[in-house]
Each structure stands twice: as structure tokens, then as C-alpha cells.
Amino acid sequence: MSDRVQDGRSLAPLVDAVTALLDEGVDPHRLSVTDVVQRARVSRPTFYKYFKDIPSLVREVALQRMEATFSRVPQAALGESWTAFARGTFMTLLTDLAEHRRFYLAVLAISPAIVMTDFITYLSRRLLTSSPLGPVIHRRKGPDTPRQRADFLAAGTVWLVQQWLAASTEPLDDVEEMVDRLSSLLLSSSGATEQEIAAVRSASPASTPIPTHPHTTPAGTSPEGIA
């Protein structure tokens, strides 16, 4: 167990502080270590014990919030139909994104490349291991690997969601439309049909749930290590 996990009493105030600051709309480009430690009521050495800079803390906070959101996906969404899975999953995810729009846009402003990569990696693995599309992606023949195909689908999804959050004036009002759009695009882009998913599923053992992201991720850890 890492020191960060063992000493969570020091880490939690930092996570809570930066989450609150970004939720409140602090300018992400002006967020400083001083702002965070003052809000968390911890020392600067405590901050640097866990994180090398603000982007590494923001990355941790974004992953924790994403993990918490995925944990709320209803179990019914992991059932037999792609439509049921996609609707249950994306309704939960997009509603959370819309409700915390200010937070996620700030996160992407502070550390766009790393956070986008983390989100893509996380969603890619969900598609491969926990969705009805997984067996189809694995069995589809071609020069690319299943992971490459899932990454491609996840990257397109994350990009569309980012554009939606940035452009929509009332994202909560648009959630249903975006759910239907993403569900349809992922299905058609994967080359699968509902019938093919049903046929592959009936011939496949139950998918193995994705391992969850550890409660904390050391700063600088590669996204490959994120589940």
C-alpha cells in the first residue's frame, strides 16, 4: 500500500479543496498551490508530499470523480441490450458531466492532454470489458487490435462530449439528445448491429468486470496503469 493511501487524512483535504475551488468557478489558469493549501488548511510541504504541481492534483481529482460517477451506473445498464447499456451508462455519465460542467471544463483547461488521455483510456477499457460491444470489438478482424479499435471509439466519444460541454448553454437540457447520439454513433462506428451483439453474447462467457481505478494514482503514473 502506498504512503498516499495510508496517509489519506492528509490527502483528502487537498482533493476536497481543489474540487470545491473548481466547482465554484475559480479561474483554472490562476489556480495556485497557495490557493489549494489555504483552502485545505494544510502546509505546502504536505502538498508536495503527494503532488508535484497543480495539474497532477487536478488529474487525481478528475479520476476520482469519474470513478465515482461510473460506480453509479445502474446495473440494468450492464444487461443484454446495447440500447439498455448505452442509455443507462450515458444517461448517468452525461448528467454528472452536465451538473459539474464548470469543474470538467476547468480540469480540461488545466491539463488537457493528460486528462483527455485518462478519460479515453478509462472509457476504452469499459467498452472492451464491460459493454455489449466488447465481444464484437474483440472478434472483429483487421490489422488493428481490439484495444486500438476501442481507443478510437472512446476518443471520438470523449471529443464529442467535450465539444458539447463547451458549446451547450444548457447541457442538462441536452442530455437525452446526446445519449441517443452517442449510442447510435458508437454502434454504427463499431460496425456492429444489435443482432450481431446478441449473437456474439449468446456464444460468449460473461464479460469480466473492469478493475476499478485505485483510490489514488501517483503523480506521473502512465494512463496505461489506470483501470
UniProtKB/TrEMBL annotation:
Domain of life assignment: Bacteria
Keywords: DNA-binding, Membrane, Transmembrane, Transmembrane helix
Spans annotated as Disordered: 201-227
Domain HTH tetR-type: residue ranges: 8-69
Biased composition (Low complexity): 202-227
Residue ranges flagged as DNA-binding region: 32-51
PROSITE patterns, per database record: HTH_TETR_2
Coiled coil stretches, renumbered: none
An MF annotation (GO) of this entry: DNA binding
Transmembrane portions of the chain: 103-123
Gene3D superfamilies recorded: Tetracycline Repressor, domain 2 (1.10.357.10)
Name of this protein: TetR family transcriptional regulator
Organism: Citricoccus muralis
Upper classification of the organism: Bacteria, Bacillati, Actinomycetota, Actinomycetes, Micrococcales
